[in-house]
Design a protein that fits this description.
Its main location: secreted. By secondary structure, the protein is mainly beta. It has one helix at about 5-15; strands at about 25-30, 30-35, 75-80, 85-90, 100-105, 120-125, 155-160, 165-175, 185-195. It is globular. Mean pLDDT is about 90; it is low at about 1-15. Bound molecules: 2-acetamido-2-deoxy-beta-D-glucopyranose (2 copies).
């Protein structure tokens, strides 16, 4: 084999192993907002927290799982309870894994809102609905997983803003790519939302958790042999229940 073809093969293998991708835009109440593109930074300010790369985060305790390392954005989008928010991934490769959508209430300005503490709650999620007969946990096509909705590129995941009290919030779209046995990969990006309107709800108690912290690497819904069809072909979502407002 020539060196170039060896390198090409290695490149293809690497692409095969890691899914690589990020939320690249949002459609909020019908209006499109560009996200950040870490490899071709635009001078245009965006609502998304700017991430350094779209490599997977490999550990449940790595602080990069919070917002893929993103800490600030120049803009925010206004939303009100009942509005739809669609996150769009320019490309996505593998079908296996859950999608979770989280929010976090900032105590003040976005510039000082770092997503720390036990303040995160879920507003939406999509797990596994395969039957273990024709559609197993590791089936690529047809897939029973929420993440499969994104495969092929320019696909979105749409959620509804719950009846939340007005304020500044982060919204976090998280994919846990599970296609490699016992080697979960996290992909998560955050954007800044200013919730307006007259909502009153503030999630508390069992709806709230910290990120990182909502799951352990050793949890059986985080690290498991996805290729073992002798295991029960079902999936329990990690983290707290979804807050519907
Ligand atoms: C698959 O799961 C079954 C049931 O837990 C277990 O007995 C078996 O050892 C596993 N096989 C592999 C290859 O992990
Ligand atoms: C799933 O993960 C959560 C932690 O987020 C854990 O409490 C729960 O026991 C796990 N469920 C299973 C079936 O492993």
């Amino acid at each position: 084999m020539q060196l170039t073809s060896v390198l090409t093969t290695i490149g293809l293998l690497a692409a095969e192993v890691a899914a690589h991708g990020a939320v690249t835009s949002y459609v909020i109440a019908g209006k499109t907002y560009q996200g950040y593109n870490g490899f071709a930074p635009s001078s245009t300010p965006v609502i998304q927290r700017q991430w350094p790369d779209y490599n997977p985060t490999l550990s449940a305790s790595d602080s990069k799982i919070r917002c893929n390392g993103g800490t600030s954005a120049a803009l925010s989008a206004q939303v009100k309870p009942g509005d739809s928010i669609q996150a769009i991934w320019q490309q996505w490769t593998h079908s296996q894994g859950p999608v979770m959508v989280w929010m976090y209430r900032c105590s003040g300005d976005f510039s000082s809102c770092d997503g720390s503490g036990t303040n995160w709650f879920k507003i939406d999620q999509s797990g596994f609905s395969g039957d273990g007969v024709n559609v197993f946990l590791d089936s690529e096509t047809p897939s029973g997983w929420g993440i499969a909705k994104l495969v092929g590129g320019n696909k979105g995941f749409t959620s509804t803003i719950p009846n939340l009290a007005p304020g500044n919030y982060l919204i976090r779209h998280e994919l846990i790519a599970l296609h490699q046995a016992n080697a979960p990969q996290w992909y998560a990006e955050c954007a800044q939302l200013q919730v307006t309107g007259s909502g009153t709800a503030l999630p508390s108690g069992s709806y709230l958790t910290s990120i990182p912290g909502y799951a352990k690497q050793s949890d059986s819904n985080i690290s498991f042999n996805i290729n073992n069809h002798s295991l029960p072909q079902k999936y329990t979502m990690p983290g707290p229940p979804v807050f519907r407002g």
